[in-house]
Amino acid sequence: MRSARDPWLDNAKMALVTLVVIGHLWAMLPADSMGRQMYVFLYLWHMPAFVFVSGYLSRNFTWTPRKLWSLVCTLAVPYVIFEAAMALFRTHVGGENLIDIYTDPHFPYWYLPALLVWRLLTPIFRPLWGGVVVAVAISLLSGFMEYDTSRLFDLARILGFLPFFVLGLKATPERLEALRSRAASWLGLAAFAVIAVLALNLDRWADLKFLYYKPYEVIDGADPTLLLTRTLVIMVGMLGALAWLSLVPRRGGWFAAMGSATMIVYVFHGFAVKGLDYAGFGDWVQQHPSSGLLATTALGLLITAVLAVRPVRRRLDVVVDPIGSAEREVDDAVQLTAVVHEQERSEEPVLAGR
After folding, report:
1. Which of 148-152, 225-229, 241-245 shows the lowest per-residue confidence on average (mean pLDDT)?
2. Which distant-in-sequence residues (6+ apart) come within 8 Å of 236 by Cβ?
3. Which of 8, 48, 87, 323, by CA, is between 20 and 30 Å from 235?
């Protein structure tokens, strides 16, 4: 029997993947526009929150054959499919020249190998005392890797975001219950106010590249300063992740019902974003920043809604998880056959008595 879904987490997941889509569209806005400031505010916390939720939902992962096979079906196979599909789309439609297919993830598929690696690390970090501290240390040290090395499956970002995943692993339903109070909601609003001020003044304390967890060699500055800045960015990300969860609605409904479509939205939205850019939408946005902010936000909401609506997601699920879909079809066929046979056996005495 399937366990009941938590509408709180479904609302959090669906809203966060919506912000992922909007954020990728906001990236088209001019660097000196208000929309770009909103982009900075968003990127200070929304991916940390997304990774945190992924960690929380991965708490039960173990190195069992069934769980490992699930990783292959739900992460490795989609990565192979969509990395190739996006590469073809970008080269044949966008005219881009791409290199290192698969080993250097292309927009936006770095998250699939990242989630695979994080889940494989789950049995190590979940019981580890001081696991968050260890993960933060790994994140800080990963910034020293060479740029070419960091591009291997986007390793710099995988290790850079590790603290948020481990923080999610360490969370429990009882600990998260504290975020559901009214007092926590007010504190969440206050935290976002602080993050907004930090976003408006980002150029005074951090480079935008810090939010992408790039190697230090691509960021100017002395090593002690870089370590301190990344530490502050991690702390702000953790604060934002908890603040976000304190503000997420607890009730179910049509929005929460789309929470199971986060993977579908994530792997397909890149084609819409890239397609709009190839069509000249990015150039128009650069020339009309105010209208562009409204247009990118509206399109982000529309793209997410279309991909997550039930009839669409049911059809796209076969592409995202072809092996799992085939296995479910087989299971359904076996169960149907068993039901039919059981009905036939139960009817035999009746038929014989006629």
Report:
1. 148-152
2. 44, 45, 195, 198
3. 8
- Give the CA distances from residue 46 to residues 19, 161, 234, 239, in Å, rounded to whole numbers and listed in that order: 7, 12, 12, 11
Share of the chain above pLDDT 70, in %: 90
Q: Assign 299 a pLDDT band (cuts: 50, 70, 90).
A: very high
For residue 286, pLDDT over 70 is answered with yes
Contact 45, 12 (CB under 8 A): no
17 and 129 together in one domain: yes
Which tokens belong to 44? 């200070």
My answer on whether 351 and 265 are in the same domain is no
| 310 lies in the same domain as 345 | no
Residues 298, 87, 312: CA angle, nearest 5 degrees: 45
* Domain residue limits at 338: 321-354
218 & 145 share domain: yes
Phi, psi of 230 (to 5 degrees): -65, -35
- Looking up tokens 């799992």 gives 324
Residue 304 in contact with residue 269, Cβ under 8 Å? yes
Query: pTM of the full predicted structure?
Result: 0.90
Q: Read out DSSP for 32-54?
A: TSHHHHHHHHHHTTHHHHHHHHH
Q: Rounded distance, CA 183 to CA 64, Å?
A: 41
Residues 6+ apart with CB under 8 A from 266: 17, 20, 108, 111
- Listed in sequence order, the residues at least 6 apart from 205 whose beta carbon sits closer than 8 Å to its beta carbon are 198, 229, 232
Q: How far apart are CA 177 and CA 6, in angstroms?
A: 12
Average pLDDT over residues 309-333: 79
Residue 1 lies in a domain: no
Domain count of the fold of the chain: 2
Q: Helix, strand, or coil here: 214?
A: coil
* Contact (CB, 8 A) for 242 and 191: yes
What is the biggest distance separating any 2 CA atoms in the chain, rounded to whole angstroms?
93
